[in-house]
Design brief:
Blueprint: E1 4-16, E2 19-32, E3 36-40, H1 47-54, E4 62-67, H2 77-87, E5 88-92, H3 103-108, H4 120-130, H5 146-158, E6 164-168, H6 176-193, E7 196-200, H7 204-208, E8 212-217, E9 220-226
Parallel strand pairs: 3-7, 3-8, 5-6, 6-7
Antiparallel strand pairs: 1-2, 1-4, 8-9
Helix pairs in contact: 4-5, 5-6
The structure holds adenosine-5'-triphosphate.
Family: Belongs to the ABC transporter superfamily.
InterPro entries: AAA+_ATPase (IPR003593), ABC_transporter-like_ATP-bd (IPR003439), ABC_transporter-like_CS (IPR017871), ABC_transpr_LolD-like (IPR015854), MacB-like_ATP-bd (IPR017911), P-loop_NTPase (IPR027417)
Organism: Ornithinibacillus halotolerans
């Protein structure tokens, strides 16, 4: 159970064709479990890069990320994957559901080939209920609305009980009202499960409702402000 993530001098650049793109420059940030944080900023400002690094999907070019003082990214690939499975849940703008699998099967996918101390099927049914989709277990993604597909993706992100939920524009593909309901669901999970939520958004109204608002620009952290009180 990771209670704190600490980034020091985090820098990520990409090199190729004689050019160097700096996606993140010298970012210093800490996150405490249970926080509900919005990350905002213009396109290309480094928001997704930051989320990928925090979620151990990517490695920094320079700087460090410590999870409860442990630099997980310095470990082997399989140790990093185990860590990711135990601690992190991801939600994406494009849902990324497997089209030939039912809602229930999609939710079960992170548990394939994993040993867990609970009944996988019961757990998957439980989280589908938690996101309000108890009657859609056997539906394919194509038979679900955008909001419902994102709920399946959220159920999949929490099925393995992560302590951190990282969401990259989770409401970006949804209309305002559906987006607000997805936001409320993330808030509920944050309060009920105590998981830290970090979400990237382009929507200033949604960002303003978070407890902490981090603004990025050109790979730099422009500001880190206290938002709405819970
Ligand atoms: N794999 C890559 N190779 C080269 N450059 C990349 C790569 N990934 C990201 N970048 C560059 O890094 C910068 C930051 O990208 P990033 O996706 O983190 O921004 P963002 O704030 O999430 O943008 P958006 O809001 O459009 O999703 C951009 O200039 C982007 O072009």
């Amino acid at each position: 159970m990771v209670n704190m993530i600490e980034c020091k001098n985090l820098t990520r650049f990409y090199e190729g064709d004689g050019t160097k793109t700096i996606a993140l420059r010298d970012v210093n940030l800490s996150f405490m479990k249970g926080e509900f944080t919005a990350i905002i900023g213009p396109s290309g400002s480094g928001k997704s890069t930051l989320l990928s690094l925090l979620g151990t999907l990517d490695k920094p070019s320079e700087g460090t990320i410590a999870y409860d003082n442990e630099e997980i990214l310095k470990k082997s690939k399989s140790k990093i994957a185990d860590f990711r499975f135990q601690e992190i849940g991801f939600i994406f703008q494009q849902f990324h559901l497997l089209p030939t699998l039912t809602a229930l099967e999609n939710v079960l996918t992170p548990l394939f080939s994993r040993k867990v101390p609970y009944n996988k099927l019961e757990r998957a049914i439980e989280v589908l209920e938690q996101v309000g989709l108890q009657d859609k277990e056997n539906s394919l993604p194509s038979q679900l609305s955008g909001g419902q597909q994102q709920r399946v993706a959220i159920a999949r992100a929490i099925v393995h009980k992560p302590s951190w939920l990282l969401a990259d524009e989770p409401t970006g593909n949804l209309d305002t009202e559906t987006g607000e309901r997805i936001y409320d669901l993330l808030r509920e999970l944050n309060e009920q499960e105590g998981c830290g939520v970090l979400f990237v958004t382009h929507d200033p109204a949604l960002a303003a409702k978070a407890n902490r608002i981090i603004t990025m620009k050109d790979g730099i952290m422009l500001s880190d402000k206290v938002g709405a009180t819970p």
